[in-house]
Amino acid sequence: MNNITMKLNSDDLILNALKEDITSEDISTNSVMPHYQLGEVELICKEDGVIAGLEIFKRVFKLLDADTEISFFVHDGDKVKNGQKIGLVRGDIRVLLSGERTALNYLQRMSGIATYTRTVADMLENTNTKLLDTRKTTPGMRIFEKYAVKVGGGCNHRFNLSDGILLKDNHIGAAGGIKEAVAMAKEYAPFVRKIEIEVENLEMVKEALEAGADIIMLDNMSVKDMKTAVELCSGKAETECSGNVTKENIARLTDIGVNYISSGALTHSAPILDLSLKNLHAI
Question: pTM, whole model, 2 decimals?
Fold first, then answer.
């Protein structure tokens, strides 16, 4: 994530998070630190994992005070260890105290997602299947969470509803059937857009192929049926496996041969990575 992308897409979100935490003033900080005092604090990792979101962490403090200096000893995507010092923040102690929680919330959440994703992605390392995220993200956090998935070794599915066509069960119901849904999408959408459709059984797979879908999502189907579906789709459409995929059960899917496996758990079930700002002192 370069600086231009970050400023265009994340500054408003970060500012809203800061406003949520500081509605009028940081009364705790102002009571013990009424005036400017230069200080520094260490960023410490408290468990093993994969770090992600360092630039967002940094941006929180920079938006509060552009003169804040942040140094990192690791990069996004690096593995970190319990007890490792991974950064140093120097600046107005009032800024360090007021920005601490918001900065850590971003870094802990993003690093947790990257850590979880890396675990799952490693299980697909020797396959031709790509790991995808979903839109099951925290409101206001999608750009950060999807970035963390990429840092962890996963790939991004569509970013939002404007980013791609995915016809699910209710779209099919609204259109009156698979054939109708795909035909309407082909007529409405630009030719550069691929059409993906969700199916639940082999008959629906055949219907989707006849309708000319580009990608067929195999939703909550048995392993046996998914293998058959992949054979049916070979050379005709790409395949995606979906439905309650987690690090605990993905192993059963690794030899099916699908092009993609999507997992909402990457973003909605990843625990945070425990990080802390410690040893604040004046300098």
Answer: 0.95
